[in-house]
Amino acid sequence: MRVKLRWVLLPALGLAACALPDNPSPRSDVAAAIARAGLPPDGQPYSYHLLAVAHLPVVAVTADSAAAGLPKENATDGNLTTPWSNAPANSASAFVAVQLAATTSLGGVSLKTGALPAGVNYDLQVSTTGTTWTTVLAHQTNATWLEEHKAFPAGTTGKYVRVLWHNNPASPTPHFAVYELEVEAPGGASPAPGASQSPGASPSPGVSPSPADTPEPGETPSTSPSASPSGLEVKPLIASASSSAAATPPTLAIDADGATAWSNGPAGEKEAWLALKFPAATAFGHLTVKTGPQPAGVSYKVEVSATGTTWTAVSGNLTNTTWLAETKAVAGSGQFVRLHFFNAATSPSTHFAVYDVHLFK
User: What is the largest CA-CA distance in the chain?
Assistant: First the structure.
């Protein structure tokens, strides 16, 4: 059994807790976590704590299918930016399951799926054999891009834990995704001594947030699969968008966090855009964009503007095929640069998303 240290935001008045980034900046990261979780912003007394979470070791992972480049192993690799995703598109259901070393008492799971569209949900099931399953939590949803905790009823035991997905029959999402699935021992998370903080406070002496699990002997710590390209990065002042889904504002596309994303508002929009404003007219030679694999017929163009009102395309239709930050050899100049997304005509994507975008000279 491994114990993981994690910062968790604990609002007062019995509101649900949500995870914070590792080594949070007291005000900016706390405020961002509050916003992403849809919790009341100001006027609520919040504190954040370093919690000790006991995770049970996983010995195997299975799934009924996997999309190209998104294998089942991604769901348990300790990397919150790499998901497992099912295939084919628009499946009515799918599953990913983990096997523990032996039948044991289970406290719950920590699960990152991203914010789920309306009508999409999953059941959490347990088994002692891997063939006969018992649903312990039905019709679960995740509302944020954080790793969310789901507590099992007291007395739950099992050797296998499965996430069984159910699509929205009226407006199916193209794919399900699990970025991380961790099984917790009973008791869930308990505060580490001396680790409580209030927003704006300094860390307790001798207590530092852990940026990742401490590797077991012989393990290699996980790292982001994408590397920064050559060239000097030019940083925008602000980001704006044609629309935004709940808890996915355009600022998440420029926060240098590959696990958080801007996403457009109304589902199935024909077009949407994300725009960046720079301090002055800026020339760039290439950019990196992380969108995740895009369904057939979905594309985007890079456009530039001197005013933010009249736009000129400097690329043709671009697509991303992986969950990496992909480099696009596109050059242009302007004080404003935007990614202009176009949906598929026959089988439109529910939403567009940009996890990260960076411009380089």
Answer: 63
Higher pLDDT, 238 or 34: 238
User: Would you say the pTM of this structure is higher than 0.85?
Assistant: no
Sign of CA dihedral 16, 21, 23, 29: negative
pLDDT, position 4: 52
Number of domains present in the structure of the chain? 3
Please tell me whether residues 47 and 65 are part of one structural domain.
no
Q: What is the DSSP string of 273-311?
A: EEEEEEEEEEEESEEEEE--PPPTT-EEEEEEESSSSS-
* Structural domain contains residue 211: no
Q: Of 164, 188, 212, at which residue does a domain stop?
A: 188
Cβ-based neighbour number of residue 31 at 10 Å: 15
Structural domain including 40 reads 2-53
Cβ–Cβ < 8 Å for 57, 100: yes
Is residue 228, in this structure, part of any structural domain at all?
Answer: no
What is the C-alpha separation between 216 and 213, in angstroms, rounded?
9
Residue 45 lies in a domain: yes
Enter the tokens of residue 75. Answer: 């769901």
pLDDT tens per residue across span 309-328 = 999 999 999 999 888 899 99
In this structure, the answer to whether residues 48 and 71 fall within a common structural domain is: no
Q: Looking at residues 46-56, what average pLDDT do you find?
A: 58
Which residues, 6 or more positions from 227, have their beta carbon under 8 angstroms from its beta carbon?
none
